[in-house]
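Why Protein HTATIP2? Reviewers of the renewal asked for a concrete example.
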Amino acid sequence: QAVVDFEQLGEHAAAFRGHDVGFCCLGTTRAKAGADGFVRVDRDYVAQAAELARAGGCKHFVLQSSQGANQHSCFLYLRVKGEVENLVQAVGFDRCTILRPAVLLCKRQESRPAEWMAQQFLGVVARVFPTAYSVPVETVARAMVASVLQPGKGKVEVLENGAIHELGKA
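Here is what the prediction returned.
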């Protein structure tokens, strides 16, 4: 494991060399980082990390994005997620897997009251519609690993929430 300074990411190119597969779950919130900080972390840092990984020999990049990602969205969060998906694809990996999970079910150390309320509601909904609106982070992690272990379905594969649930069972 290598610790890098994302503000000086180019100086840490050696940390990205010699890996066949790259996994990226990097992200922040607008509330925590502000709009500019959110864009810098969720788009710029991710795109630069992908470029460094590719230059270092990475063949398969696995990106956690978001349900509804769309570069043309009027919502900042979804627009930035769509933009970074396009930037990562443009890097030219032999294979790129993009996961678009719905609301992530997890326990956080930081307080996010609105997210906590949504998770409580969605936890109940998930009992009836287990793959519709949410996904446990453990399922996303298993799906990310499983995507690498299975043959690809093309150069770029986008996995929506239902497919993440299915692959996460593997």
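The longest strand covers residues 95-100. This is the kind of structural detail the renewal will allow us to pursue systematically.
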